[in-house]
Automatic annotation (TrEMBL):
It comes from the Eukaryota. Signal peptide: none annotated. InterPro entries: F-box-like_dom_sf, F-box_dom, Hemimethylated_DNA-bd_dom, Hemimethylated_DNA-bd_sf, SirB1_N. NCBIfam families: yccV. This is F-box only protein. Residues 306-330, 485-504 are annotated as: Disordered. The lineage of its organism: Eukaryota, Fungi, Dikarya, Ascomycota, Pezizomycotina.
């Protein structure tokens, strides 16, 4: 039975009572709400709305509201209002999403409008991507477009990080600069930056307990730096035991090292993880600028000097600078190689290796010092592009060749390769990557055209001043191509009817959605469109030796998408229809861009291109 006797607290206004209750742990807050009817009205209702909010949405809430980040959630948050706002946002996203599935016209624009809602719709998109029932009428399309919009949301964040980094934003952390690659490639399932920071925080909190609080407190800063490396290696979070898999794409991503066994990584990612944990214990650890391998540069001062870990007096620069352009420090410096071991690396050995290359003393000092966050991000981008080459023949997966190459190109455009120093040279270098980046974007990720628009507006600025209309455009400026793409997206599709039986030429045998194997090259694909005869330019016809085919250029040709996400143009005589379920899930993920679902009875994909091919 609730108490009825008035207490001093009952004389306080509702706002103060709620503020008091907000400082209680959840169990005590609930007990407080049961003491009388007024408390239940003020606190109990708030607790119910909070529970509803946190059970329905995980993303888009401030981190301090999230159940896995705090034990005590603030009651003063307007939880009911937050629930109502999020419900309205979900409804808006659902309407836009249904429209983009229904019609091809304005599909990219609607995807952008959903993505503009950001993390407020991430939970909804994840439900569509991961939990749409297999028997839903539009299962493939719903999953595909939800995933594509999630990519757009995450990549927008990643590009913003690299753009700020290119402008020398000193607030960008190393984990965010490298974690942006995870956002770009891994669809946010493991690679969300909040998840990475949260996991690193948990790991850092576990270190003192692993060694015992008294033992940890007795360690000086240098001993702690070494113990952190030891702890991370014992947890198998650093390094790459399987040397044959050193260049695997997965080793380039922080979230794979943190969340996905066997937790392998490249030296840069191992050092980045080490530094992130060390910095949470007030240890100044940064990745090195050393060529060929990445070490952790850990700065003191220590409680005692370890001569083996110091540069010898024979070096011209005994104390390398802390960072580019900074003054020399008076403390000591230690080097670690957490990728390979938990032991200190003798600085004199590293320095002599550089001196053996006949490098000037000043350059040796720079290479022995820590690198910048921007240069670490460039280095990661170069590594990904190299790893992507070895992934060319991989059968899809989240780290497919095209996606990895795409992210590497974005980084190269935004940050360059670090070999040029003037703004003019950096701009020209970025422009060199413009064409291959746009080509991949339009072929595989057309929903990201807005990101390209912003990028190319900065690479190829248009002078709007009077009298500038006759100015010659830059030869690599893709503005007209982007504008044409935008126009095409907003235009209604022109219906393409199938030819009648008495029409001249060969019959168009296959329809949009036909699953087939190429007669000559044995790859699998899906028909996404057709022409009554070959419509490619003469140069292409000659290069592909189309006239050598049995039915030549006069036979129907089909636009298709293959299992490597590659769009191709295939002659009818090379189409061998398949009457079995598609193998592997990659082709069904690709199919969602064009089709609603797989029809197991007819052994075809059900078209979502009816405006363009109404009879297929």
């Amino acid at each position: 039975m609730m108490a009825t006797t008035e207490q001093p607290l009952d004389r306080l206004p509702d706002e103060l009572l709620l503020s008091i209750a907000s400082h209680l742990p959840p169990a005590e807050a609930i007990a407080f709400s049961l003491t009388n009817e007024r408390h239940n009205r003020i606190v109990g209702e708030t607790l119910r709305w909070r529970k509803l909010c946190l059970s329905r949405w995980r993303y888009g809430l401030a981190p301090r509201y999230r159940p896995n980040l705090a034990e005590n959630f603030p009651l003063e948050v307007p939880w009911r209002q937050l629930v109502e706002t999020r419900q309205a946002t979900d409804q808006k996203a659902e309407a836009l999403f249904d429209d983009l599935l229904r019609t091809q016209q304005g599909r990219i624009r609607r995807m952008e409008e959903v993505a503009a809602l950001g993390y407020d719709v991430k939970d909804l998109l994840l439900r569509w991507q991961d939990k749409t029932p297999d028997d839903a009428d539009d299962v493939l399309a719903r999953r595909f477009y939800a995933s594509a919009i999630l990519d757009l949301i995450h990549r927008t964040i990643a590009i913003d990080i690299w753009t700020r980094l290119a402008k020398d934003d000193m607030k960008i952390e190393l984990v965010d600069a490298l974690g942006a690659y995870d956002l770009f490639v891994l669809n946010g399932k493991w690679g969300d930056l909040e998840d990475i920071h949260e996991e690193l925080g948990k790991i850092a909190d576990d270190v003192p307990g692993h060694y015992g609080r008294k033992g940890w407190d007795a360690c000086d800063k240098k001993q702690r730096a070494l113990k952190i490396a030891e702890f991370l290696r014992e947890r198998n979070l650093l390094g790459n035991p399987d040397g044959t898999a050193y260049h695997d794409l997965r080793n380039n991503f922080l979230s794979m090292a943190l969340f996905a066994p066997p937790h392998t990584s490249l030296p840069l990612q191992s050092v980045a993880l080490y530094c992130a944990v060390a910095q949470r214990h007030d240890i100044n650890a940064q990745p090195s600028n050393y060529p060929g391998h990445v070490y952790a540069v850990v700065d003191g001062p220590w409680s005692s000097r370890n001569d083996e870990g110091q540069l010898g007096s024979e070096l011209a620069d005994d104390n390398p600078p802390l960072s580019s352009g900074s003054a020399h420090t008076t403390g000591q410096r230690m080097y670690l190689d957490p990728f390979n071991s938990a032991h200190e690396v003798a600085a004199i050995h590293l320095a002599r290796s550089l001196q053996d290359r006949r490098l000037p003393a000043g350059q040796v000092a720079t290479m022995m010092g820590p690198t910048s966050v921007a240069e670490a991000a460039r280095r990661a981008g170069r590594n990904i592009l190299r790893s992507a080459q070895s992934a060319f023949h991989e059968d899809g997966g989240p780290l497919a060749y095209e996606t990895a190459t795409y992210v590497g190109l974005w980084n190269a455009v935004l940050l360059g390769d670090g070999q040029v120093r003037t703004r003019e040279n950096t701009l020209e270098q970025s422009r060199l990557y413009a064409a291959p980046l746009l080509e991949r974007l339009l072929r595989h990720f057309p929903q990201e055209i807005g990101l390209a628009e912003k990028l190319y507006a900065s690479l190829f600025p248009h002078d709007e001043e009077e009298g500038s209309s006759n100015q010659e455009p830059h030869p690599m400026d893709p503005s007209e191509e982007i504008a044409a793409f935008r126009t095409a997206d907003d235009q209604p599709r022109t219906p393409k009817t199938r030819p009648t039986n008495d029409a001249e030429g060969l019959e168009v045998k296959y329809r949009v959605g036909q699953y087939f194997e190429h007669r000559r090259y044995q790859y699998e694909g899906i028909v996404t469109g057709w022409d009554e005869i070959c419509k490619m330019p003469e140069a292409w016809i000659q290069q592909m030796r189309v006239d050598d085919l049995e039915d030549g250029r006069g036979q129907p040709f089909y636009h298709i998408i293959d299992t490597h996400r590659t769009a191709r143009y295939v002659a009818q005589e090379n189409i061998l229809p398949l009457t079995r379920e598609p193998t592997g899930d990659l082709i069904t993920k690709i199919a969602g861009r064009y089709f609603k679902r797989w029809d197991s009875e007819a052994c075809v994909f059900v078209s979502n291109l009816k405006e363009e091919y109404p009879e297929d």
